[in-house]
Write a structure and sequence with these properties.
Length: about 550
């Protein structure tokens, strides 16, 4: 059991942090004996623990007692841990070249040290952990830091400190038992059928990119001849498509069913056509409106649902107006005939009040947290988390989006560079768990984009080793909700921890419970068990 000594506001964010690093913890009580106390307010003298971890950017009593001179830092700054960058966005401090085997450093200056005291084993860390977590889950990371799973590295550092201190602990890993991570294949449907685009900006853009743009890509080596030929054939077939004599080549629901080999997708569909909504600057951007709405494609939607796909809302004004969100959700529900609890905002519109508005509109989860111009970790994690200032709304963060990778004016990457970046994100998923959420748009398999070959290669990379659970967005969120229901009950006199959980849907995979107990098994202190929640599990620590 970790005792946490922190201010009231820090304890609030600590609750969410320990849903991500799912281990036993409680606000520290002076009358209890703890294996470890994690302190962010400097309180240790009144507490009883074998190990104290003191996270503070300001001076602490142990620093004065040890005679350590502090050098304050103002973030953002990248410190080094485990040969990788760990961005610190708030205040931090270095402790000079303090002895004791520092783990974290900045240009040779230590951000942690071990003071010699009679109180117990102490590890001093020079930044404010819960302030960093609050920043990641509210403001998020800038696009320049998108590739860094910062929150996961904070968790990994804390885990390392526990292991090095030989503190016994158990945790529920952020992945299902038998899987390395969860993958959600999602698709924003902004267009449905090129026939809906007669003499408009979208059609003009298609013609330009399918003709001159394709030729330029071919010359620069960014597109193979086979794709160029496909684009030119599609361009020449346009008159027949508009006359109904040739099939429309923008058929996203059918196209993804054909290439995903039985894996079930989540499609975010626009509820109302012709509505651009209000932009982030308070104005109206007419080009944001789309020429279709979900009710016009009922047959295609029902076929997709029959195949096991999920239908969710591609919101227009839900991010800023709960009543608009209710109307948008209701429109989708009327088409699907069932609950439609998920939302991702069109153009990824979002602001600080959006979580409250989306929850008030009745959505169960949001999947907007990502980047238009980068891929990676806006919140520093790919785990599902509860959005601050909400009671039940979960965020399924967006990991990889095609238009961010390939659009000129965004990342504009060549295929080889884009794939290497995606490989690194998949590798992080295997290392840290969580969810890998891929967003491949409606037109991305079809002319003129033809990003289907890259998409198949990416899905194959994700599938390597066959240790991934392909789930719809709602299934991934439901699994993390069930993981959040897991509880730890500790008996301090016997050092017995009892693990219980809410009932689990039998279609849902079990969890993985990891035990670190050097006293019980010093040679191999780590053990992993399957935890299905049906019966309590008791662990002696």
């Amino acid at each position: 059991m970790i005792g946490v000594a922190a201010s009231t506001i820090d304890l609030q964010i600590a609750g969410e942090f320990f849903e991500l690093f799912k281990t036993a913890w409680e606000p520290a009580v002076p009358s209890r004996r703890y294996s470890v106390v994690l302190s962010t307010d400097g309180r240790i003298s009144e507490l009883d623990a074998e190990v104290f971890l003191i996270y503070r950017s300001g001076e602490d009593a142990v620093d004065r007692a040890a005679g350590i001179a502090l050098e304050p830092l103002t973030g953002p700054v990248d410190v080094e841990w485990d040969s990788s960058a760990l961005p610190i966005y708030g205040s931090a401090t270095t402790f000079g070249t303090a002895a004791g085997g520092a783990l974290i450093a900045l240009r040779g200056q230590a951000l942690d040290y071990r003071p010699g005291t009679s109180v117990g084993t102490i590890r001093r860390i020079g930044y404010d952990l819960f302030q960093e977590i609050r920043h990641l889950l509210t403001a998020g990371q800038p696009a320049s830091k998108a590739s860094i799973p910062t929150l996961e590295r904070h968790i990994a550092l804390l885990r390392r400190l526990l292991v090095e201190s030989k503190v016994p602990f158990i945790e529920i890993l952020p992945r299902p038992d038998g899987s390395d991570f969860i993958c959600c294949l999602t698709h924003d449907v902004d267009f449905f059928g090129i026939r809906r685009h007669r003499f408009d900006r979208t059609l003009a853009g298609f013609v330009l990119r399918a003709s001159v743009g394709t030729l330029a890509d071919l010359v620069r080596g960014r597109r193979p001849l086979s794709e160029a030929v496909r684009n030119w054939i599609a361009l020449l077939s346009l008159p027949l498509v508009f006359l109904g004599l040739a099939p429309d080549f923008w058929r996203p629901l059918d196209d993804y069913a054909a290439v995903e080999d039985g894996r079930r997708s989540t499609f975010f569909l626009v509820p109302f056509k012709g509505r651009p909504g209000i932009a982030l600057n308070g104005k109206i951007e007419p080009t944001r409106a789309v020429p279709y709405q979900a009710s016009e494609i009922r047959q295609e939607i029902r076929a997709a649902v029959t195949r096991g796909s999920e239908i969710a809302t591609h919101g227009i004004d839900a991010w800023r107006d709960a009543e608009a969100g209710r109307q948008e959700r209701s429109q989708l529900t009327s088409v699907t005939g069932g609950q439609t609890g998920g939302v991702r905002m069109h153009w990824l519109y979002y602001d600080t009040d959006s979580p409250k508005q989306l929850e008030a509109a009745g959505f169960d989860y949001d999947s907007t947290w990502g980047y238009n111009d980068a891929v990676g970790y806006r919140a520093g994690t790919s785990q599902v988390f509860r959005l601050p200032a909400t009671e039940n709304l979960m965020e399924l963060p967006l990991s990889v989006m095609d238009s961010a990778l390939f659009y000129r004016g965004r990342m504009g990457l060549a295929n080889a560079d884009a794939f290497q970046l995606c490989v690194s994100i998949v590798a992080n998923a295997r290392k840290f768990g969580g969810t890998l959420v891929v967003n491949w748009h409606d037109r991305s398999l079809a002319p003129e984009r033809l990003w289907g070959r890259f998409y198949r290669r990416l899905v194959d990379e994700v599938s390597t080793g066959d240790r991934v659970w392909f789930a719809t967005a709602s299934e991934a969120v439901d699994w993390f909700r069930w993981r959040r229901s897991i509880r730890f009950t500790s008996d301090t006199s016997t050092r017995m921890v009892t693990v219980t959980a809410a009932p689990r849907d039998q279609k849902m995979p079990a969890a993985a419970l990891r035990i670190f107990n050097p006293a019980q098994a010093p040679a191999d202190p780590t053990e992993e068990l399957r935890f299905d929640g049906h019966e309590p599990v008791r662990v002696q620590l």
